[in-house]
């Protein structure tokens, strides 16, 4: 990897890191928000879902615009919009107290608009920055690690901010976004590839041709990416609720415990990105193995139920390991299998599908809290098994080669 690119990669990695902080740090705070706003766990989970739903809709548009006008020109304004959303939610909570729920949701929606044009653009940008596929895979592993590292920090930072005020997590978002904007503005040199996508009609035709030729494996990766994020955010929501309601952990202690399985996921993402290189067959089998490990961990959780906190964490960490192995492989498949001119739009559709998983996980798991624990975990294991089978039979390394 070129040495001169290191600082540019650092700047780029702040985007998924900060966008992850802007969403995941709400996980440990949701029970507190539910009490302060006098809303149900389902309603509090919508603070994550509304952010993700609006991003799902707008991400493909942002991807096309980044192909048309340039990655940097879309990312920086998007980060500013995301910061503005945090200000809206924070001021609403500060000024309106327990009557602020609707305006907080509106601010989260605005933050989702910004998120749509920020983090999802990172994957095609990394593909633009490097010429060798091995460098792309390694950089994508670092990007996925920064994303996961944001999830590791999120519960701890969220818990610390709550010590100041329950709404401090909202007001921290514009600060984080401003930092990323400055780093991108001064460190990132926009790749010369940008602006070559032609008219929308020509671009639409080329993307349509891509899906005609590669639709099977692309659709499989979209589905598997959604499953991975659905499982991750669903498990995090369940873990946060369980640690507080069943075991009595809250604040920094709960945040630190939530960081344990996420740290495993982070380390797995980094090692996998360094390992896979250009080997698409290895990417496929690591994806299968990672999702199978997740499935087995969920079956173990269903069997274990509440027979001990340490055993509970071992299985949760094993599931995080599986997700951490799979995600960098999916990122590399998407980025290395699509030509640069269409990479922004195709990878943005993949990001949209990941956001579908993020949006669906917490509310569906919150509705399932009335089930028995074995029923919940067996259901999640069945979803993971779908990901295993999809990866095994629908992802073909030869088709994913350009």
Automatic annotation (TrEMBL):
It is a multi-pass membrane protein. It comes from Paenibacillus allorhizosphaerae. This is Bacillibactin exporter. CDD domains: MFS_YfmO_like. It holds the Pfam family MFS_1. The chain crosses the membrane at residues 7-30, 42-62, 74-96, 164-188, 217-239, 251-273, 285-304, 310-334, 355-371, 377-395. The gene is ymfD_1. Its main location: membrane. Keywords: Cell membrane, Membrane, Transmembrane, Transmembrane helix. The lineage of its organism: Bacteria, Bacillati, Bacillota, Bacilli, Bacillales.
